[in-house]
Amino acid sequence: MNQPTAAEPPGQARPRSRTVGTAVFAVIAVIVIGTASFFSIRSASGGTDVRGNMSLIAPAAAGGGWDTFQRELQQTLRTNGIVNNVQVVNVPGAGGTIGIGVLAQQPEANNLMVGGSGHITAQVQFGTPSRIQDVTPVAKVLEEYDIIAVPADSPFESMDDVTEAWTQDAGSLAWTGGGSFDQLVMTDIALELGVPVSETTYIPSDGGGEAIQALLNGTADITAGGFADIYPQVESGRLRVLGVVAEERLSGSPEIEAIPTLTEQGLDVTITNWRVLFAPPSASDEDVEELREIVAEAVETPEWQETVERNYWREAPLEGEELDQYVQSETDRITTLFEEMGR
């Protein structure tokens, strides 16, 4: 998950240099998107409508989950001729919230930003001025799931083993994860078990790879981590999976389908890392409907279906009023979890 690059307690005044730097970056990002759109318009035969030209905003640096999603979507749109000219524009910073600010300023509807729980995590944790409520939800596309894993030689062979040890001594297990979302998963499990969150041990890591190393070198005992990051290590025999944080078992290989959910193991924890596409607030109802049709066409293609399988994603379509309610309920839930974490 894409994570904030610096920690500031909510409500604490930001240094002026950071405020100015953030503003300058946002202005530059707007110029970059505007320039890219200009050249696309000049070279496009389809004009300036959303099917003629589109910018896909990845609110993070290249290589992360949001960037991967947008580049996979770009390839799908290009391969199937759904959009004439489509480009990915990276707008990193502040846990993705600079990307929100940039999208909110776009005057044209042909800009789609991918967002999700990571944005809400950032805006709650750091009190950022740009919020997910500033932009227009178009369509929820998919969800990514965390799995709970331990080193292959760990004495913990099931979530029951973890529960027994953790409830006896809240600080006895050293958890790790690739970012704030993974810590939210740990917090949710702790609350479900009645483990005092303030007494838990959590070792933050800069991405899934670092979290895996913390497990393998003995720094950490257990992780809640993204499926795509952790599961290949399970397949290689280096890690053991104890459960998946999902409402139901995932489809896939027999090995994946055999992974029990936490719910099956008596833990009502189903928080997911979701992916929603957002348009600028300037988009009209007609624009939003056209964008939804574009997304619907893309996700039905064989190329996208292969992408979903390759990245261990799960389709979870949602739009309209139900999507608005979903984003608000997730905002409320993540806010509550951060309050429990003492943030």
From TrEMBL:
Keyword vocabulary terms for this entry: Membrane, Transmembrane, Transmembrane helix
InterPro entries per UniProt: BUG (IPR005064), Bug_dom1 (IPR042100)
Keyword Transmembrane annotated: yes
Tree of life domain: Bacteria
Residues annotated as transmembrane: 20-41
Gene3D superfamilies per record: Bordetella uptake gene, domain 1, Periplasmic binding protein-like II
Keyword Membrane tagged: yes
One Pfam entry name: TctC
Family label: Belongs to the UPF0065 (bug) family.
Name this polypeptide is given: Tripartite tricarboxylate transporter substrate binding protein
